[in-house]
Design a protein that fits this description.
The complex is a heterodimer of chains A (450) and B (285). With 450 residues, chain A is α/β, with parallel strands linked by helices. Chain A is 52% helix and 8% strand. Chain A contains 19 helices and eight strands. In chain A, strands 5-4-3-6-7-8 form a six-stranded mixed beta sheet, with helices on both faces. A two-stranded antiparallel sheet of chain A has the order 1-2. In chain A, α5 runs antiparallel to α6 and α6 crosses α9. A five-stranded parallel beta sheet of chain B has the order 2-5-8-1-9, sandwiched between helices. A two-stranded antiparallel sheet of chain B has the order 3-4. In chain B, strands 6-7 form a two-stranded antiparallel sheet. Chain B has three domains: 146 residues, 3-Layer(aba) Sandwich (Rossmann fold); 35 residues, no CATH class; 84 residues. In chain B, α10 crosses α11 and α12 packs across α13. Chain B has 285 residues and is of the alpha/beta class. Classes of the chains: A alpha/beta (450), B alpha/beta (285). Chains A and B meet through α2, α3, α9 and α12 of A and α2, α9, β9 and α11 of B. Chain A: It comes from Streptomyces filipinensis. Chain A: It holds the Pfam family VWA_CoxE. Chain A: This is VWA domain-containing protein.
Chain lengths: 450, 285
């Protein structure tokens, strides 16, 4: 039992390292769940531990691979498996056609065993999912599987068959994930699960660096916009309630104290006029930071009812207003970036970003958008491609706006390296490092005006 | 209440609730560990149905607290019956004040609301706290005592502790983030959209008249729609509705016209319908 207890605590430790908050009570619950369920059925154990340890659906993406490492499906490779690549492909095609998950998992194990090993000395060898998939090329089986399914049983043809392509693609994707999981399992056998669980498991979407997020992660992030916006709206409302209470109005307190003989029995509080602030967003839409900008634009749009006016501008080296493109209901979040680049004039002579020119153009064409009630957010990495940073424009902006904040998706250590004008801008506008959705959420909750 | 996970699935199936392995396992654990069960998931996947099915299986009474914005102590826990207290005071004119005072704050004048009812019940009880996310944050604080210790403190009476622990199910649509304190007291279960195989069985169970081939096509189309990144992905309830519609229309197989005409049953937004029609190669609507 002690070995099992150690497994559980190891699992909990790895989950905590990924930012899942688990208390001792939950760990005890997990152990009790393990006791009640036994080790006979692995999938049940997985569900049971997930129920005891997790608090939200988003954490499942981290939990599953970590669970696979601490409660592996088996030890070592499959015995006596044929490692012939063509034979493997044949059997995989059949498994995909039949959508047989168990067989696919077994084939994934065989594939990693036969095709994924590299290195020979004990220190440097391992198992690579990348190498396995590169040699096996499951994606090239698409046409063959299609023919198999269509020809095989003749499933009535009909309407649903037009969905076949996508279905098979999803199956192949599932197989790729299985290969990845199995390669991790084999490596973990060699180096211990703790290290692999900390390094080899992809973090949850809200902790992924904007600059390095891949397409799937960005899509995942877009799905978190609405829940995050709701959370932020609650927090803003709470801040607004607190702020509305206001400070003591000395003049009126003294005036009212006259009726009690000059003793201020009841302090009079200054009432704040409920003013919904205005927001202006300047977003760098160039390739390097567009993931960050798109996400922030969607988030601000989702929060639009918290403000009297939201205006959004995008730029690369020319600047254009894109507020209309973000309209509610119309926004297809996935295609937002492409639409902005297609419909707005963002580039002039060349395609690389130029902050100086874009900021200058903003001051010139949309100067009236900024007034004393406006809070301005500039989103971008402040990399000017060696152009003039046009500090005068930012200084002017900071003078006219209520506040100017700059959110920079680069790590603070890289500010000022190469062509980054971040330190110069940071002197004029408050600059914050904003690398992940989690950081962005915290910053927005703190910085947004109430 | 249950002897094994298989027992849970089998007995839930008898009532017409087909549970996925995750649901069965978690229900079994909630019963075994005596912890409340927090169920989250999109609308229409059967969160409330689960509680009803468990109540039916266990032969338990279902006590339901429907949460809404502004639900408070007097709606959820208990209330003193003021009218009756006044009557009691005016009826006993000759008594001393002390007697009256101790008498009017006794059990007789207490109006139990769902939470207190569930705690005090002698018979097996399933307590369903529905749409917890609709209630205010203050309400969550009220729930904490009930969920962790299964007791309620009434200042005038003392603490009422459950003689028999109810099986508690909380549901949430994630309209608001529930507090960490509430979450840690519960087992967490996320019911997502079911696997294809399970959904086929659900459709077969709910709409037995539909042919096997058509059932399969329906489930496949719905699966494809869910992968499409729509504003509101169709849920199990919509799948069943669609199957019923097709049965009523007397459609033998799925074809373009049938799908185009009945797409409104599964998709509830005009943009979604247009998008789905484009992806499924239907003609323009």
């Amino acid at each position: 039992m002690t070995a099992l207890a150690e497994r559980i605590t190891g699992l909990v430790g790895a989950l905590r390292a990924h930012g899942v908050r688990i208390g001792t009570g939950e760990t005890v619950d997990a152990a009790r769940a393990l006791e009640a369920l036994g080790l006979a059925d692995r999938e049940r154990l997985r569900e049971g531990l997930a129920a005891a340890l997790l608090h939200g659906p988003g954490q499942r993406a981290v939990f599953d691979p970590v669970f696979d490492l601490y409660f592996p499906r088996g030890v070592g490779g499959p015995d006596g498996a044929a490692t012939d690549r063509e034979a493997l492909r044949d059997r995989l095609a059949q498994a995909l056609a039949a959508d047989d998950r168990a067989l696919m998992a077994q084939l994934a194990a065989e594939a990693v065993d036969g095709l994924g090993g590299y290195g020979s000395s004990p220190g440097s060898d391992g198992w690579s999912a990348y190498q396995t998939l590169d040699r096996l090329r499951p994606q090239t089986l698409l046409a063959r599987v299609q023919a198999d399914v269509r020809g095989g049983e003749g499933s009535g043809g009909g309407f649903a068959d037009r969905l076949l392509d996508d279905e098979i693609r999803r199956r192949i994707e599932a197989f790729r994930r299985m290969v990845g999981a199995d390669a991790r399992r084999r490596v973990a056998e060699r180096r211990g699960p703790d290290e692999i669980a900390r390094r080899g498991v992809v973090p949850t979407a809200d902790r992924v660096d904007f600059l390095f997020a891949n397409r799937d992660q960005l899509a995942e992030l877009r799905r978190t916009v609405q829940p995050l916006a709701r959370k932020l709206a609650t927090r803003l409302a709470a801040r607004r309630r607190r702020a509305a209470r206001g400070t003591v109005d000395l003049r009126r307190t003294l005036r009212s104290s006259l009726s009690t003989g000059g003793v201020p029995m009841r302090p009079v509080l200054r009432r704040r006029r409920p003013v919904r602030p205005e927001l202006v967003l300047l977003c760098d839409a160039s390739g390097s930071v567009s993931g960050f900008s798109d996400f922030t634009m969607l988030l601000v749009q989702a929060l639009h009812d918290q403000f009297s006016k939201v205006r959004v501008f995008a730029f690369v080296n020319r600047l254009d207003e894109v507020t209309g493109l973000l309209d509610h209901g119309r926004a297809d979040p996935g295609g937002l970036g492409a639409r902005i680049r297609a419909e707005a004039t963002l580039t002039g002579w060349h395609g690389s970003s130029d902050y100086g020119v874009a900021l200058g153009e903003f001051a010139e064409r949309y100067g009236e958008a900024v007034g004393p009630r406006t809070t301005v957010f500039v989103l971008g990495d402040a990399r000017t491609n060696m152009g003039d940073p046009n500090l005068a424009a930012v200084r002017d902006l900071a003078r006219r706006a209520r506040r100017v904040y700059w959110l920079n998706p680069e790590p603070r250590a890289q500010w000022g390296t190469g062509d980054s004008a971040a330190p110069a801008y940071a002197e004029l506008a408050e600059m914050h490092e904003c690398r992940t959705a989690r950081q962005l959420g915290a910053l927005i909750a703190r910085l947004l005006p109430v | 209440m249950f002897t094994s996970v298989d027992d849970v699935s089998a007995r839930l199936a008898e009532t017409g609730y087909l549970a996925s392995p995750a649901v069965a396992t978690t229900v079994f654990l909630a019963d075994r560990l005596g912890k409340p069960l927090l169920v989250e998931g999109p609308a229409g996947v059967g969160k409330t149905e689960l509680a009803k099915a468990v109540a039916q299986v266990a032969g338990a009474r279902l006590v339901r607290l429907q949460c809404y914005e502004g639900v408070d102590e007097s709606r959820a826990l208990y209330e003193w019956n003021h009218a009756k207290q006044l009557l009691r005071i005016s009826a006993g004119r000759d008594e001393s004040w002390d007697e009256t005072r101790t008498d009017i704050f006794s059990e007789e004048f207490l109006l139990p609301r769902p939470l207190l009812t569930a705690i005090r019940g002698e018979e097996p009880t399933v307590l369903l706290i529905d749409e917890t996310d609709k209630a205010d944050v203050e309400m969550e604080g009220l729930l904490l005592e009930v969920l962790s210790d299964f007791q309620i403190t009434v200042p005038e009476l003392g603490t009422v502790t459950a003689t028999r622990r109810p099986f508690v199910v909380l549901t949430s649509n994630a309209g608001r983030e529930l507090s960490e304190a509430l979450r840690r007291r519960c087992l967490f279960l996320h019911i997502g959209f079911p696997e294809e195989e399970l959904e086929r069985r659900i459709v077969r169970l709910k709409v037995p008249g539909l042919g096997a081939a058509l059932t399969e096509s329906v489930v496949r189309v719905v699966g494809a729609l869910r992968a499409m990144d729509l504003r509101k992905a169709p849920s199990v309830a919509e799948t069943v509705d669609w199957a019923r519609t097709l049965l009523a229309l007397g459609a033998g197989t799925l074809d373009e016209t049938v799908v185009r005409d009945s797409l409104g049953v599964i998709l509830k937004h005009q943009d979604d319908i247009q998008k789905a029609a484009a992806k499924l190669d239907l003609d323009a609507l």
